[in-house]
Amino acid sequence: MVESTFSENRHLFSLPSLKKHALEGSFFVMVLLFIGFLFYTTLTWMWDDQRLPLSKIVLQGDLTYVTAGDVQHAFSEIEHIGTFMSQDIGVLQESLEALPWVSVVSIRKQWPDTIKVFLTEYQAAAIWNGNMLLNENGQVFNGDIGLLKGDRVKLYGPDGTSQVVIEKWRQITPLINSLGLTVTSLVLNERRAWQIILDNGIRLELGKDSLDERVERFISLYNELGSKANQVSYIDLRYDTGAAVGWFPEQELEESTDD
């Protein structure tokens, strides 16, 4: 009888405790549901295109060739522009990296409706193969050559040789400049032979080997030519020693003088 009484008492005593725990659990679940509702409502509001649209673009950078219109057009090509919260910055960045002249893109959001765009343009050091451009590192990029401000040297070469060609141009330029001349074109042909066109119209055939020595030989020869240099059409330096000089016909020179 003692054991039975003890069991009944324990059972009766535990009912209020269970009820209390049940109420506490229900309250906790209701709090969680309320927090979830607030979170869902907030996210829905923030992702609503009508609530937080990206409506302002701030364009920054030392720009010469890229305009605000170019940036707006690039963004307009994106299928869907999201809200301040939902828009993927990477998508915006890729659209601007595809623009001609754009080298580096940095984009960040500014609450509540603004994106700040900082652009760095390529610096055109040379015209490559007639229709492309090179930066200082010999990297090929696309840009409207007609928009270039100032003259650029024209470099030519097979695919994948742009860095070699621009480096050779840098090496040769000080030597040619010492004569008061300028390299207007440097060509590396498919046979890997070099050719130079100078601003006075002389064409130099340098071949494949001993390029530096042959340029030095041209400098010595040019100094010896003196006033006769303006009669020279080309100089072929593809010899171990010496050079072959091609002269303009006298009639052509006379016509040129009359002009």
Automatic annotation (TrEMBL):
It is a single-pass type II membrane protein. GO terms for biological process: cell septum assembly; FtsZ-dependent cytokinesis. The chain crosses the membrane at residues 27-47. Residues 52-122 form the POTRA domain. One of its GO terms (cellular component) is cell division site. Keywords: Cell cycle, Cell division, Cell inner membrane, Cell membrane, Membrane, Transmembrane, Transmembrane helix. It is found in: Cell inner membrane; Membrane. Part of a complex composed of FtsB, FtsL and FtsQ. Belongs to the FtsQ/DivIB family. FtsQ subfamily. Essential cell division protein. May link together the upstream cell division proteins, which are predominantly cytoplasmic, with the downstream cell division proteins, which are predominantly periplasmic. May control correct divisome assembly. This is Cell division protein FtsQ. It comes from Vibrio toranzoniae.
